[in-house]
Amino acid sequence: MILTVTLNAALDITYRVPALRPHAAHRVTDVTERPGGKGLNVGRVLAALGHDVTVTGFVGGGTGRLIRERLTGVEDALVPVAGPSRRTVAVVDARTGDTTQLNEPGPLVTAAEWAAFLGVYGELVAGAEAVALCGSLPPGVPVGAYAGLVRTARAAGVPVLLDTSGEPLRRGVAARPDIIKPNSDELAELTGSHEPLKATQDARRRGARAVVASLGAEGLVAATDEGRWRAAPPARLRGNPTGAGDSASAGLLSALAEGLPWPARLTRAVALATATVLSPTAGDFDRTSYEELLGRVGVTTEVTAA
Amino acid sequence: MILTVTLNAALDITYRVPALRPHAAHRVTDVTERPGGKGLNVGRVLAALGHDVTVTGFVGGGTGRLIRERLTGVEDALVPVAGPSRRTVAVVDARTGDTTQLNEPGPLVTAAEWAAFLGVYGELVAGAEAVALCGSLPPGVPVGAYAGLVRTARAAGVPVLLDTSGEPLRRGVAARPDIIKPNSDELAELTGSHEPLKATQDARRRGARAVVASLGAEGLVAATDEGRWRAAPPARLRGNPTGAGDSASAGLLSALAEGLPWPARLTRAVALATATVLSPTAGDFDRTSYEELLGRVGVTTEVTAA
């Protein structure tokens, strides 16, 4: 079983409007909604790849109920809280294709609720082959939360991937996660460097055993204790990048759980991320494209000295 | 019992953001939500005035469940449908105070669901002292829906107020409702005239027994078979006009149910609408202001020939 943790689970709502004009009233022509938050997205992709997946984190209120009802293909071990789970609203302008995002903050988690989660997490980790810790922290959760969760997983001998940003990432890295997967902005914020090769090495020195940085359409760059690689899709492709980073995390974990070496992990991550960009539905991946891309992702060894 | 009908009930969500910028991501700093749709708003104000209120119309899906859970002070006779009730999202820009509105379309109502509603409505009307038919029609409901609902109420001898717009208003007026309460745009669309006194008379000729037009901060103008009046607040007041029209409808129905003459009905409507503008919470009315305003609304007889 692979465990994914989503402390600030969301109901992701997408509205399509003919054209977004501030201060006007808009008739929404199309509404879609589904469970969101990075950990639930990673879990959905892992389940689609055939893994046993358990999802945990917090849900509450009417929105939490809607999130739970829409979970499919994963084991629901979410912990209830009194506050309401957040919605995110993505408003897509049909004229330009641009998206305007509105993100609710999420429930205020009490100390007792956080303690209850730690108990559930400790039990689940004991039965997991890998753990993904993903996304932002809801109000009330201590900023060092991920550091503690990383330590619990490491103490249990379970490999752990951390995908977050800002201070929770900075603190989490110090607890020595097996993999972090920042995008270039998150990596620059962590290390102060905008040069990915240098920054990935710096992030390793801060504690991460492996750093896999996502560089958008250019693919991934990885710094690990087994070597350094770049992995890139065969061509620059047009599409919707929403969820591509979560698909990359799922690819890394999936291949890690299967005991594959780093180049194969990176190939799977880039193929999944690219197949997500190519999918007509944001956050889903196109299976035919994925299988075809597995043979076409280029992985090259980086030989530059650190 | 006063019956209010909301065929396209909504969950009204308000988001406060520091500043709305298209194509950016926004952290929502404040979230409020409550049942909406004009009929539910009118029902809430009537209940606050001490009336027995029953609300009907359609609700469905997870949003419908949230609407029902949040109804307070009214009898819930909403009819379930398979499709999901709509959300409306009002995004308030904290810098300018301006609101950008996103309105979902509402559930697709089937012929069988419409027939089920007509059965419920017929039973409820028989026990009602007045009926309010309010708001837009969800997809699938016939455009002549309000005309039929007006006829049912009239056949039962129950006075009926109609507050809608466009073709549903045009058709509904022909069925001879006791009161229609258009705003100046709706009245101009119905009659082709932008001159309220002329237009209210024209709308009476189309079938409405009484026409009460809301002119925003200038108050109301009424054309009835007992005379014509203007009713205005004592001063132009700053505030949020959201829900003021629904409060005016509630005032008209409340005074009608108590057997008060037209000038007293208009006084109550203007006092409630003004106290709604003055309330810090959109759509609620400030009770102290309301009671104080009852003595200060000016009602004048219109003597201009039609």
UniProtKB/TrEMBL annotation, chains A, B:
<feature type="domain" description="Carbohydrate kinase PfkB">
    <location>
        <begin position="14"/>
        <end position="283"/>
    </location>
</feature>
<protein>
    <submittedName>
        <fullName>1-phosphofructokinase</fullName>
    </submittedName>
</protein>
<dbReference type="InterPro" id="IPR011611">
    <property type="entry name" value="PfkB_dom"/>
</dbReference>
<keyword id="KW-0067">ATP-binding</keyword>
<dbReference type="InterPro" id="IPR029056">
    <property type="entry name" value="Ribokinase-like"/>
</dbReference>
<keyword id="KW-0418">Kinase</keyword>
<keyword id="KW-0547">Nucleotide-binding</keyword>
<dbReference type="Pfam" id="PF00294">
    <property type="entry name" value="PfkB"/>
</dbReference>
<dbReference type="InterPro" id="IPR002173">
    <property type="entry name" value="Carboh/pur_kinase_PfkB_CS"/>
</dbReference>
<keyword id="KW-0808">Transferase</keyword>
<dbReference type="InterPro" id="IPR017583">
    <property type="entry name" value="Tagatose/fructose_Pkinase"/>
</dbReference>
<comment type="similarity">
    <text>Belongs to the carbohydrate kinase PfkB family.</text>
</comment>
